[in-house]
Amino acid sequence: MEFGTWVLVFLFIQAPIQECLLLFFVFLDHNQKPMKFIDHFNELKRRNVIKSALAYLVMAWLITQVIATVFPVFGAPNYLLKWALVILALGFPVWLIFAWVYEFTPEGIKKTVDIEPERSISTKTGTRLNKLIIITLTMAIVLLLADRFTNDTAQVVAYGDQSIAVMAFSDMSPKQDHEYFSDGISEELLNLLAKIPDLKVISRTSSFSYKGKDTKATEIGKELDVTHILEGSIRKAGNMIRVTAQLINTSNGAHEWSHTYDRELDNVFKIQDEIAAVVSKELKLSFTDQASKSTIIDPEAYNLYLQAKHLVKQNTKGAYIEAEAKTKASIALDSSYASSWRLLAEIYNTGTYNFSIREPKEGIPMGLDAAHKSIALDPGSGYSYAALSSLQELNWDFMAASKNMGIALELLPNDGIIIGTAALSTYGDLEKTVNLLNKAIEVDPLVYSNYFNLGHTYYRLNRLKEAEAAFKTFAVYYPNWDLFHYMIAKIRLAQGKTDEAITEIEQEKHEFFNLYGRNFIEFAMGRTIVANALFAEFLEKYGDTDRANVADLYAFRGDYDQSFLWLNKAFEAKDPVLVEALTYPSFKPMYSDPRWGAFIKKIGLPKDHGYPLK
Domain check: are 229 and 299 in the same one? Predict the structure, then answer.
């Protein structure tokens, strides 16, 4: 609660507190000589009971804020915070009775009734209480200001009029069977413009989300925070193509430039360069760097490359197998095109990891080889370095992966996809992850996966309200996605709302996360028999494949010896979840164990990793 709100609350409750205390102490002194109501009120003030009450409430609030901040750092369980609140609440009436019955004197604590009025120092005591209230409120202000100004999100470069979204060009071919070509040209134009240092270019994910929709340019400009959009159409017939392009100002929907190109297919690269040059001229940007020019390759090889890219977007095993064949055919015709090698590296990566087309020991080395060839042909490709980094991380070459992701960020500092990907490779530095994800969202607000990853990061940082807000934003775009109820259940559990956590996890449809989540909740609720049965079920189903998650459950149960045992099993098996799992809250109590630091060191992480060693 903000400081101003607390002040209003104190002012609002001060009079009721006085009345309640008055009635309470009238009852407390019912055997003494009857006194008028106003006399009791004056006696309360003389004995500093009202000031004592306010001092206690202010101090209790400050203690609560400090505990809520410090306890999570040391991995203290949530019930300790609850008990602290209970103790503070129980102490309030005890403190009030003490303030009424006793008084501090130079000779020590004495009963107020035994002290002659002329010898009482209650006035001095009241002054001290005033100072205590002021000092405590001052500390509260400092704490609130520190909390507000130390959680800034990442700042994004202001581009002014230098921002653009490249929309999916329409397929105007006679049979409208060249969507792969029109989409591919649009994306290649996007990639070409993204190489201009001072131009903010929205990613394909966001730009292409408007495909097939009748959305006005002014609306797109507001939603994507860009000043211009590039749209158009492509008509392909035999060896001839017609490309129509239009540059539109999103502030008023005005067409600032348009042109139609009628060329042979092998001139498509010159068309891309001409369009990019015109866009940079209209936006008053420099387009003289040769790195921002298209690479000219064999037209049929390029056609096969675009077909393969289109297949990859289908995201099925069959499509990946076919895409691999077309990419290899493209490379066989012309092996000088870096983008073809990068695409092949990405196909090996996803085909191995997601679709099990190959065993990792075969697929990952093939992907690494393709990524290295792509970089050798085009050292300025940030996407190639990102592809290489992803494969190196799968290969547990973390230092090389971190280095190459850094290069990708340097080459494409304003690409929402690259920034969001880099945010997942901070190796335990969750604050850095938050900053990168916030920047990625500001640069490219419709890359929805960034909202999920931001929510998950906030959860691991115990910033639970922010986590829930991010998850609910993601759910707006994907209302039926798996893991939503699991993550909300984990948030409710961290908040100590176990009944609500149960309600959420019962709605989780994903088999793994339903069982995983119920393990945490049932154990936290003290239902030992049920929790043990669920844990046995989890071990039977997933013990051979999800070792890092087993270690997480053992840590949550407080069995740290078994947790370390399963962490080592995950290390030996190169469990891909391990690097992320080490940031889970369950492991915090293990940070002080010497085995933790030794384990972190043996993984082979970059020197600037964010995992605590103590």
Answer: no
Helix (H) or strand (E) holding 259: strand 255-264
Q: How many residues does the chain have?
A: 614
SS3 string, 149-216, reads HCCCCCCCCCCCCCEEEECCCEECCCCCCCHHHHHHHHHHHHHHHHCCCCCEECCHHHHHHHCCCCCC
CB 557 within 8 A of CB 523: yes
Q: Are the C-beta atoms of residues 210 and 167 closer than 8 Å to each other?
A: yes
- Report the SS3 class of residue 103: strand
Sheet strands (E) in 36-93? none
Pull the structure tokens for residue 128.
């001290």
Domain count, the chain: 3
104-137 residue pLDDT tens: 665 656 565 556 555 555 566 666 666 767 777 7
Q: Which domain holds residue 94?
A: 3-149
CA-to-CA distance for 507 and 485, rounded, in angstroms?
Answer: 6
Instruction: Let me know whether 344 and 320 are in one domain.
Output: yes
- Name residue, tokens 């709302």: 497
Residue 395 near residue 368 (C-beta atoms within 8 A): yes
CA–CA distance, 418 with 382 (Å, rounded to integer): 8
- CB within 8 A of 301, min separation 6: which ones? 330, 331, 333, 334, 337, 340
DSSP-derived secondary structure letter, 266: G
Out of 287, 306, 333, pick the residue that ends a domain: 287
Q: Residue 83, class by beta-carbon neighbours within 10 Å (0-12 exposed, 13-18 middle, 19+ buried)?
A: exposed
pLDDT at 14 over 60: no
- What pTM was estimated for this model as a whole? 0.61
